[in-house]
Design goal:
4-stranded parallel β-sheet, binds fructose -6-phosphate, Rossmann fold, 14% strand, globular, alpha/beta
Length: 329
């Protein structure tokens, strides 16, 4: 049924994610070199930006100052001590190309990742360090080939926990056997079947990367409106929206070892929904390293977005609205 609902074959690439991640991590890409980095900027949009979010989460637990740019503007503080890591899977994204140019002009250290396109031409012309990584199906579906290539290339410059990388791949393999379309007790399919209205995703600070990726995947694959909010901040604004009725449905993405104050907030929030008769779903991360926790959620939730697309009768692969905007830039 998935082949019929997804004629573009996106799910077939998802099915190979663990192998793609493994190959990409062990591929001889060579390592990035750096001359003393005081801060790191990850630049990229959409599917490429989602990879920056994951790397940001990994680095935010270290002493390195890190920021994410999803747009045209490099922070004004960026200079020779800044490593600007830019990703554009197609290599043709205007915003990211603008950041690369700004980084070169500001004398930043750079590492660029793309599958070709203008980024490859620009980096070749200006002799900037770059890595060409294969695109699998589409930019957003190329998440593992780019993420794991970047972890391998950047391993000498930023701290990468080797065990966490290996665990994240073996966890993905284990998860695949539970979320494949043949299984009836499939948690991704069950979540997709439950979604009838507009998903409102709540997430703890450490899992923003997974939640935002889920939002993006629901939008790009299932073509639906979605909101994603930090659970603590949402208690000061977004939570009031539930007083207004409507067809929204809360999804709580909880971390296996959330900060105790966040755990307390989940409990209060569950009580709030129950007191108002609002049904909700909880998705919990596995225990483990930062990367393993995020990857496990991304794999499960991306699958849910494809299932939702097919259940709704929309094709997950094409994104004509994004194509329209890009044509007009
Ligand atoms: C489409 C997709 C988009 C792109 C975004 C940026 O599959 O995932 O979100 O990732 O439009 O394009 P790239 O990644 O080529 O720079």
């Amino acid at each position: 049924w998935l082949d019929k609902g997804d004629p573009g074959g996106m799910h077939r690439t998802y099915d190979r994610w663990p192998e793609i991640a493994e190959e990409s991590y062990s591929e001889e890409y060579g390592q990035a070199e750096s001359g003393g980095v005081s801060d790191v900027v990850f630049a990229g949009m959409g599917g490429s930006g989602a990879i920056g979010d994951v790397l940001y989460s990994m680095l935010s637990k270290t002493g390195i100052h890190v920021s994410v740019v999803k747009g045209y503007v490099l922070p004004r503080t960026a200079g020779p001590g800044t490593l600007v890591v830019s990703t554009s899977i197609s290599g043709n994204t205007r915003e990211t190309l603008t950041v690369i140019e700004a980084a070169r002009e500001a004398g930043c250290q750079t590492a660029c990742f793309c599958s070709g396109g203008e980024m490859l031409e620009y980096c070749t012309r200006h002799k900037m360090p770059h890595w060409v990584v294969p695109m699998h199906h589409s930019p957003r579906t190329s998440f593992p080939s780019f993420l794991y290539a970047m972890l391998s290339v950047l391993g000498g410059v930023i701290p990468v926990d080797e065990k966490d990388v290996r665990d994240s791949i073996s966890d993905m393999r284990e998860l695949r056997s539970r979320i494949s379309p043949e299984r009836e007790d499939n948690p991704a399919l069950e979540l997709a079947r439950w979604i009838k209205g507009m998903p409102v995703i709540y997430y703890p600070w450490g899992l923003q990367a997974a939640a935002v990726r889920f939002k993006n995947s629901l939008q790009e694959n299932a073509k639906c409106h979605v909101i994603a909010e930090d659970v603590i901040e949402a208690c000061h604004n977004g939570i009031v929206s539930w007083e207004g009725g409507g067809n929204a449905q809360p999804i709580l993405i909880e971390g296996a070892d959330d900060y105790y104050k966040t755990k307390e907030r989940w409990a209060i929030l569950r009580g709030f929904f129950e007191s108002r008769g609002i049904g909700y779903r909880e998705v919990r991360s596995v225990k483990g390293g930062v990367l393993s926790k995020i990857i496990n959620l991304v794999y499960l939730l991306d699958y849910a977005s494809i299932y939702l697309a097919v259940l709704r009768g929309v094709e997950p692969s094409p994104v004509p609205a994004i194509d329209y905007i890009k044509r007009h830039l």
